[in-house]
Amino acid sequence: MLFVLLVVLIMIALMRFNLTALHEPGPTETRLANLFKHYFIYRASRHGIPPRPKDTKASIERGGSHYGLDCSVCHADDGRSQRPLGQWMYPRTSDLTNKRVQSYSDQELFWIIQNGIRYTGMPAFGDIESPDRVWDLVNYVRTLPGDSQKGDSAK
């Protein structure tokens, strides 16, 4: 009986499911999608990540240059996804300064930049950027102003 009820509930949910990008999904769909995305990124990033460059300061500087060329088109110069291209995608371009993105480990961010995320606007840079350049981007993303610094720049 419980199994039949579960199947009926799943069928009802699937009948309401829609792939339109015109409207934001509901909170349950968003939560589930983020949960699965985070799990798969965590799992994939556990293996094959090369060591980071030793000179972090120089890496951050190089990362800022690469970010301006590769990432700011969608994520904007400050990482908050305010450019039109990023605003009109779905899923929307991530705010790189928010707690959810910053909660990813460095290895997970490396994996995301190198491999991209299917069914989102996040491209894979692994075929066009060296591992050192991907680490430069990871190190730079960690320097973007967080929530406590947003209020000052928004005034």
Polypeptide structure, described:
The protein has 155 residues and is mainly α. It has a domain at 57-145: Cytochrome c-like domain (Cytochrome Bc1 Complex, Chain D, domain 2). Helix 3 crosses helix 8 (131-141) and helix 7 (106-115) crosses helix 8. The protein contains nine helices and no strands. The chain has helices at 2-16, 27-44, 56-70, 72-75, 84-87, 99-102, 106-115, 131-141, 147-154.
Give the integer mean of the pLDDT values.
86
Intertermini distance:
58 Å
In CATH, the architecture of the domain at 57-145 is Orthogonal Bundle
Global geometry = elongated
Return the structural class: mainly alpha
Return the string of H and E elements. HHHHHHHHH
Q: CATH class of the domain at 57-145, anyone?
A: Mainly Alpha
Poorly predicted runs are: 148-155
Task: Provide the helix percentage.
Answer: 55-70%
Largest sheet: none
Number of separate strands: 0
CATH fold topology of the domain at 57-145? Cytochrome Bc1 Complex, Chain D, domain 2
Q: What amount of the residues lies in strands?
A: under 5%
